[in-house]
Amino acid sequence: MTAYGEIAHHGLLSAEDQQLVSAAATSVTVQRSNHEEFSAEPAGLSSVVEQTSSIDALLHGAYEGDVSFGELSRHGNFGLGTVQHLDGEMLCLDGEFLQVRADGSVHGIPPETLTPFAVMCHFDPDQSYELTSPHTWEALQQQFDEISDNRLVQAFRIEAFFDWVSLRSVPRQYRPYPPLSAVTATQTNWQAEQVQGTIIGFRFPSSLQGLEVPGIHLHFISADRKIGGHVTDLLLQSGVVQVQQLSELHVEVPEGIHVAEADSSEEVAAAIRGVEGHSS
């Protein structure tokens, strides 16, 4: 069955959704589901990225989700996203869900808590590379470009020592929810220096822009679990990168949320760069 046929089987396609699949299916198989279908999906799927909602919905202020972290744990042991009401940054490392609030504090996440946006997989790396020389943010991106298959999604895990890592998080939001650009304009920023830790994240093809953040999206947690956040810049001294290639994207669409088609426009690209904390 084609990617479009798999999705149409769920009865969730609008005309815009058909365009989304046409744009994305050349690189990654995209499957859509509602909450009930997402919950019924078998656990432990390999080569699959599991996602709740989309970056486009988040950009427009959709900060309430329908998937709990207890439920999300069935769909992966590795990932990133945010917490209900956009209450900070989230990362999942070795099955442990952690929340980094706007004050920089790190907390475990109760299983009953919901998420409006999360990207998960069962991490099983198929490649490993040593980083033996200092890497700036730009050099790390170039390294990712060299080891990535641009037709697929990559999950990255980096265990390293950092001269410094620039981080950010955002405060909990209240109705009426502002767009994400307004929230990140008042985000909290800080820097961890001379720190051992882990960076996790994903690299998505540009054809999935709007559904996901194109390029790399990384979150950090220190080895002592005392500091973390969304990575905006860094200077890495040495470490090891593990990479997993992923060929499917399963998107759970919360009730009442419209997930727009993939949008390669510069306007959307600039909006995503802005909220990600990068100007280029």
Explain the overall architecture.
By secondary structure, the chain is α+β, with helices and mostly antiparallel strands. The chain has one domain: 60s Ribosomal Protein L30, Chain: A. It contains 8 helices and 16 strands. It has helices spanning 3-8, 15-24, 35-40, 55-59, 69-72, 137-147, 180-184, 266-276, and strands spanning 29-33, 48-52, 67-68, 78-82, 89-93, 96-100, 106-108, 114-115, 118-121, 127-131, 135-136, 153-169, 188-204, 215-222, 228-246, 248-252. Strand 5 and strand 6 form a beta hairpin.
Features:
280 residues; alpha+beta; 60s Ribosomal Protein L30, Chain: A; 8-stranded mixed β-sheet; 6-stranded antiparallel β-sheet; 8 helices; 16 strands; 39% strand; globular; disordered N terminus
Radius of gyration: 17 Å
Main sheet summary: 8 strands, mixed
Q: Strand arrangement, largest sheet? A: 1-16-2-9-4-5-6-7
CATH level-four homologous superfamily name:
Hypothetical protein, similar to alpha- acetolactate decarboxylase, domain 2
Looking at the structure, the CATH topology is 60s Ribosomal Protein L30, Chain: A
Structure annotation, total helices: 8
* Topology order in helix (H) and strand (E) letters: HHEHEHEHEEEEEEEEHEHEEEEH
Q: Identify the quaternary structure here.
A: single chain
Provide the structure class.
Answer: alpha+beta
Task: Report the principal-axis shape.
Answer: globular
- Which CATH class? Alpha Beta
Beta strand %: 35-45%
Distance between the termini: 39 Å
Portion in helices: 10-25%
Summarize model confidence as the mean pLDDT: 87
How many structural domains does the protein architecture include?
Answer: 1
**Would you report the number of β strands?**
16
Q: Mind telling me which CATH architecture this is?
A: 2-Layer Sandwich
Poorly predicted ranges (pLDDT <50, ≥5 residues)?
1-16, 18-26
